[in-house]
Amino acid sequence: MALAALGTSSILAVAGLTPAVAAARSGSPGATSALAADVPAALPAALPAGAPAAVVGVDGEYTQRFLTMYNKIKDPANGYFSAQGIPYHSVETLIVEAPDYGHETTSEAYSYWVWLEALYGQVTGDWAPLNHAWATLEAYMIPTSADQPTNSFYNANSPATYAAEYNHPSSYPSQLNSGVSSGQDPIAGELKTTYGTSDIYGMHWLADVDNVYGFGATPGAGCELGPTATGTSYINTFQRGPQESVWETVPQPSCEEFTYGGKNGFLDLFTGDSSYAKQWKYTNAPDADARAVEAVYWAKKWAAEQGKSADVAATVAKATKMGDYLRYSLFDKYFKTIGCTSPSCAAGTGKTSAHYLLSWYYAWGGATDTSAGWAWRIGSSHAHFGYQNPLAAWVLSTDADMTPKSATAKTDWATSLERQLEFYRWLQAPEGGIAGGATNSWDGAYATPPAGTPTFYGMAYTVAPVYNDPPSNQWFGMQAWGMERVAELYYASGNAQAKAVLDKWVPWVLANTTVTSTSWQIPSELTWTGKPDTWNKTNPGANAGLSVSVKSYGQDVGVAGDLSRTLLFYAAKSGDTAAQAKAKGLLDAIWAQNQDPLGVSADETRTDYQRFDDTYVAGGNGVYIPAAWTGTMPNGDVIKPGVSFQDIRSFYKNDPAYAKVQTYLNGGAAPTFRYHRFWAQTAIAGAMADYDRLFGTSTPDTTAPTAPTGLTAGTITSTTVPLTWTASTDDKAVTGYDVYRNGTLAGSTTTTSYTATGLTPSTAYQFTVRAKDAAGNVSASSAALSVTTTATPVDTTAPSVPTGLATTSVTQTSVGLTWVASTDAGSGVAGYQVYRGGTLVGSPTGTTFTDTGLTAATAYSYTVKATDVAGNVSAASAPLAVTTAPVTPTGTCTVRYTTNDWSTGFTGSVRITNTGTSAITGWALRFSFTGGQQVQQGWSASWSQTGTAVTATNLGWNGTLAPGASTDVGFNGSHTGSNPKPTAFTLNGSPCTIG
């Protein structure tokens, strides 16, 4: 299924993968024998406790930069890896783009890690880290045989049941339709024959590394183990058409046992069927697998040059095997013939369904019940130029060590190489940029494209393949990602078609990339007009009607890294000195201007974060949930119509950085962050290693920067001294400054300013500054600056009195309060004191508070006082009288109680339905256990147990039940071998029917 988009300025191409909308029905035919997949003999060890040791005897300024970056990335204290040794998408947790949480990971991150370790092996001759990276990838991102248990039932003559794609999430779920024919899968048989298994050797694209969502779909260990499961968990997000951005997704586990979500788990949000079976499903991002193959090829080449081929032989074999299975991305989604313009078009036979381009995904799945007898596989009909990897296709079709074992793999990849290079030429604008891509399934439903739509071997041109929010070819990063691989192919093979594309693309990029001594910028967003000519291999058109312009510029350090690598590979082969100089200048500028303790970064102002609390607008943006559909996330977050992105991700509100988002949502300025994405850091590190390998010398840099001058202080306070100075110069580049206070290092900065904090009032200090460069040379000290901090001012003035005290909510047991913030001209407002009558009941730092534990139908009086940092307290606000809600008599009710049992534990799921004629406002459900069971952890209600008696009391969001309305609550419990169900339930004291 074509998927969807990101709402960020730095889009990841791995976004929008479609997991298995085209799942097979529970009655689909399949093969009859199961064979075990290859799995690691043991899980790889976690990272070492400390940073990697310094590498001795390695020359080259840019190589040293690479090792500096490498050590920062691999230092556990910097937070790039989990305790299991899995790379996070970013060090920071609050980040929303293709992954909707920073401590998820992607197959993209793993592939960049493999690249990083390949470069490390080239620099040091140590190949153990590369093998470790692949072992971790294999253990945690390639599903084991236990994770894909029913592949043996897969029927290559009936790969999957058709479900149309739609252009907007509101058209889902999509009904499965067995009346539309699928073609034959032509490679399943030879893969099984070659490897002795029906399982797939490819990476799933997304995992929740710390199990933050709580699905607990743990590799090799279980399907939905829940929030208490430790370690990484397979998940998915996108699944509902090209308009579904990350802000509109509903996260779901990659293995469905209906423990979470609604009655059918999450399946009926995406596909319609007469009944739903428990199942597993995975989605592969082909560009990530291809990047991993690409990196291992270079590792193989460099290890051979070192006489160490044996050190990487096992990893080379595994990468080659991955390339064999990667061929699933070369086929139409339902294996229909290429050029299909109707759901009734011919089903493919042999290779007639192959478009030979790396498509947006391939996916596979099946029943969890090994006796159910079905499994399915799909390719993708949509191809984006940014996903192509002609270097990988060249390696898999020409390198004797990396040609896959399957009978037709070499021929398939040889055809793919030629087809990909034609694809670039077809999509290239006269200015040099590469346009979007093509699809074999217009509108995701094999519709007829509009008249005049250009075609490529029968596939229709689309300016923004796969996702539209924002357009998938707006982000310049796709250009850098795609063309880097073309440049690598040109460098490695001298391919003339690759050179022809680069000869137009490189001048366009050079003209739009600016580097100065104080700043740099590269294209950020692109604007496309027109369309290419229909492709004619023997007489390609000039694409005079296609045009691209740069809409905006920015500082995306990751894209700059991959852009630099593209220019370096091209320059090394072609001798283009302008490309080499621009790449070097860009790398030097980033090194001088963007370094920080964790790597490199730049300010990112995230206006898209206004979508955190967006709710669905009919036909527009927001999380679409079908009417009457309800469910829960593992933490109890309710999924229902009207929820926002953060409503089903409430954990974000506990993130240390969330206050900046809340300020923005409250009308403040858009938040600015500095992110450390794993792929971006490795892209910069890789570019540094490339420069020395391709152009560097072994002459060490021994020249120190000049000493800083002009050290001055700004406005001095009792505890701070702001410092500025004139920049130093260096024969290479100044990378930062160390600031000393009274002869002791106080801090470091990459700019020419620094503020000393935490000082003592009325105290004399002496400051000096020293400059440093990438090679570790340090300048002489600046002239010393002596300053004395001011005395501590005495604050005796209380803050202003809080005003506007009002209620935000009133229930039977709680009162929510808000008020207008006070002001304080002295030390500043520190917080507030909330009084109920004359009793202090809370001391919030903000202007809201909820008083709980109250009695229904009872009058209370509240006042608020403000306090400042110096301890002064304002007068009380005007009092506010509030009466809690009365107890609402319960009419009739129904309770449905089900359990999912295991050895000594169980999950209890309870649905409470108001079958009366009036609303219930506030409820308490009570029942008793008869088998000694104990409630361990609950959600969607406040749970308590005394002896055998259990009480569940509503939360604020589900306290009101309209007539006919239901709410779902649940808990994890323990038992001693017997788990009889309760025989009676009461709601607010009234008995309920057990349904």
TrEMBL record:
Residues 707-792, 801-887 form the Fibronectin type-III domain. PANTHER family: FIBRONECTIN TYPE-III DOMAIN-CONTAINING PROTEIN (PTHR13817:SF73), TITIN (PTHR13817). It comes from Cellulomonas soli. It comes from the Bacteria. GO terms for biological process: cellulose catabolic process. This is Exoglucanase. Residues 886-995 form the CBM2 domain. InterPro entries: 6-hairpin_glycosidase_sf, 6hp_glycosidase-like_sf, CBD2, CBM2/CBM3_carb-bd_dom_sf, CBM2_carb-bd_dom_sf, CBM2_CS, Endo-1-4-beta-glucanase_dom2, Endoglucanase_F_dom3. GO terms for molecular function: cellulase activity; cellulose 1,4-beta-cellobiosidase activity; polysaccharide binding. SMART domains: CBD_II, FN3. Residues 1-23 form the signal peptide. The keyword Cell division does not apply. NCBIfam families: exoglucan_CbhB. Residues 975-995 are annotated as: Disordered. Keywords: Carbohydrate metabolism, Cellulose degradation, Glycosidase, Hydrolase, Polysaccharide degradation, Repeat, Signal. The keyword tRNA-binding does not apply. The active site is at residues 108, 287.
